[in-house]
Design brief:
alpha+beta; 5-stranded mixed sheet; 6 helices; about 35% helix
């Protein structure tokens, strides 16, 4: 992950609403929940950062509990899963998973070819019941983009290099553990 620059919350909020209008007319519009998560993440100290993400970064993002849009089988258990593990669940479930979770499956299908838009992440879980039981308490944690990340991985579209834009709330130094591929943007390429 490359840290590009610090940004104000107003920039993050404006970018989110530009790509994910709360009033967008479709039956499974959950953008209002994404906006609420942005507000929760803004309460985390150390501000916001514009970042660039690799496929490995995205596959390691921790997702909160997700009941597959009211489907029969939860996609992500309460303890959380990485994007990589959630994608494995969808692949392993095949047609049976799709039939049991029609709304979630339709979102994944629709977003496979959707343009890349920024992902919204945090360095710690936000204050919401869906995040309360996450086993991982620090790292790249989902705020918004669960279906997009999964759909892009399932379609084989995630770029290997730092090709995805994102916004990160919190202190990025918690990600800089030995061996972590975190850049500040100040280094020469």
């Amino acid at each position: 992950m490359e840290i590009v620059t610090a940004v104000a919350y107003s920039e993050v909020h404006d970018a989110y609403l530009r790509d994910h209008p709360v009033e967008r007319g479709h039956e499974a519009n959950t953008n209002v929940y994404g906006e609420e998560n942005l507000e929760r993440a803004d309460r985390i100290a150390d501000g916001w950062w514009r970042v660039r993400l690799t496929r490995a970064d995205v596959l390691g993002v921790v997702l909160p509990w997700h009941l597959s849009e009211g489907g029969e089988h939860e996609l992500v258990p309460r303890g959380g899963l990485t994007v990589a593990r959630a994608a494995e669940r969808v692949r392993a479930g095949g047609a049976a998973w799709t039939a049991a979770n029609p709304v979630c499956a339709a979102k994944l299908h629709l977003l496979r070819r959707a343009p890349f838009t920024p992902l919204y992440l945090c360095t710690a879980p936000v204050d919401h019941p869906d995040y309360a039981s996450l086993a991982v308490r620090a790292g790249l944690i989902h705020i918004d983009g669960l279906h997009r990340m999964l759909a892009w991985e399932l379609a084989g579209r995630l770029p290997e290099g730092a090709g995805l834009d994102g916004y990160l709330a919190g202190d990025p130094r918690v990600l800089a553990q030995p061996g972590a591929a975190v850049r500040t943007g100040d280094e020469s390429a």
